[in-house]
Design brief:
This protein is an all-alpha fold. The termini are close together. About 90% of the residues lie in helices and about 0% in strands. Helix 1 packs antiparallel against helix 2.
Length: about 70
Amino acid sequence: MQIIDEVSKTVIWLIRAGAAFRLCYCLFRMISADEDSVMYKKRAMNTVVFYIIAECVWVIKAVIVNYYT
């Protein structure tokens, strides 16, 4: 069980870091590219939605594990 917890913490860290870098990239591209700013704004919103869904999955996993242990 300890290995599964370590792997899940690593995956959570990677998701958070990846979402943060993707959001920063989209924001910087929105600033620099005026004609493509709508596309990067949509991509940034999709990144935020992905991050929220990913965090909810890990919270649900923690609730289920705590319920059955």
